[in-house]
Amino acid sequence: MEGTPMRAVVVTDFDTEPRLVELPVPEPGPGEVLVRLAAAGVNPFDWKVIEGAMRGSVHHAFPLVLGSDGAGTVESVGEGVSFTPGDRVFGQFMDIEQGRGSYAEYAVTKAAKLARLPGDLDFDTAAALPTAGAAAHDFVEGTGIGPGQTLLINGASGGVGQAAVQLAAAQGVRVIATTDPDTAVYLRELGASEIVDFTAGPTADQVRVAHPGGIDAIVDLVTSPGRLEPIAALLKPNGVIVSSNGAVDAELVAARGLRGANLYANARPATLASLAEAVEHGQLRFRIDFKAPLEEAADALARSKAGKARGKTVLTIEAA
Ligand SMILES: NC(=O)c1ccc[n+]([C@@H]2O[C@H](COP(=O)([O-])OP(=O)(O)OC[C@H]3O[C@@H](n4cnc5c(N)ncnc54)[C@H](OP(=O)(O)O)[C@@H]3O)[C@@H](O)[C@H]2O)c1
């Protein structure tokens, strides 16, 4: 199989259009796994990479296969790997320095980035899960919040936010979730106690009116650096804020008697396994709000960038 042609979605440079091309099926090295992908999950990071989010920090190997998240069946393995051909797996595949990603019929990744799919969990859901699930898990855990405390999830209507609402609510946390009116009922179903309609006025103003004494913690998924002040000001003294977008200025936060951090999701196999198990047991839902074939990856990325995500986007992959 290795070396024969496969279809993959690549960019040949920064700020170029993703294109479906033929590349040779890659070969797994020691500690690596070649997976025949059935589905790839789309994340905002995928189009941010094209725009140069990692430019200057790591070498980019072009043509760069796009995509981090994927699910499929093990095709072959390198030395020292405990997976065997035929295993159903999911996890992260992006390796910018080697030009590797999940928007392809076959992809190689480190065995340490994969977990087995439990039972009969479907590939689409498994592909939707890794980055958003791990981020939600790590961010909620990163606040250190506990039962009875109040957590604002700013950006609750998107892929990470929906998972974070469920994980926090399952711990007995009182969740305030931002969304538009259309998705409010769904977020309540997922466990949100309060809804803030961010399309009706500034979130900070609405939360302050409802909680004049302040709230305990914030997971912020939308605010960019330099703009966090009004949201952070909602916290009680010693409250904690975590940002997915590098918006926390540690000095400023400390000077205000608050705690804060910029967090980066770590999709460890143990985290992936526990999230998949929660999905299998009906304790965690990943809503797929847009599905398209691999051939339409460029449109799916443009759609993600345009906003209005109310769940996850998944690319379905059928070997030619
Ligand atoms: N640090 C990490 O490791 C890590 C991991 C995963 C994700 N992220 C980042 O975290 C962010 C969220 O990721 P995601 O996958 O959840 O993205 P997503 O699925 O695109 O969801 C983003 C959601 O935020 C909503 N939103 C936009 N502006 C808002 C505002 N002012 N107030 C409230 N909600 C607003 C969007 O709705 P509208 O479009 O209708 O405005 C959308 O529902 C992205 O920037 C992503 O790159 C970081």
TrEMBL record:
GO molecular function: oxidoreductase activity
UniProt xrefs under InterPro entries: ADH-like_N, Chloroplast_QOR, ER, GroES-like_sf, NAD(P)-bd_dom_sf
A Pfam family reported for this protein in Swiss-Prot or TrEMBL: ADH_N
Gene3D superfamilies for the chain: Medium-chain alcohol dehydrogenases, catalytic domain (3.90.180.10), NAD(P)-binding Rossmann-like Domain (3.40.50.720)
The enzyme's E.C. designation: 1.-.-.-
Key word Ion transport present: no
CDD domains: MDR_like_2
Domain of life, source organism: Bacteria
Stretches assigned to coiled coil: none
Residue ranges of every copy of the Enoyl reductase (ER) domain listed in the record: 12-315
Keywords: Oxidoreductase
Oxidoreductase as UniProt keyword: yes
Protein name, per record: NADP-dependent oxidoreductase
Species classification: Bacteria, Bacillati, Actinomycetota, Actinomycetes, Glycomycetales
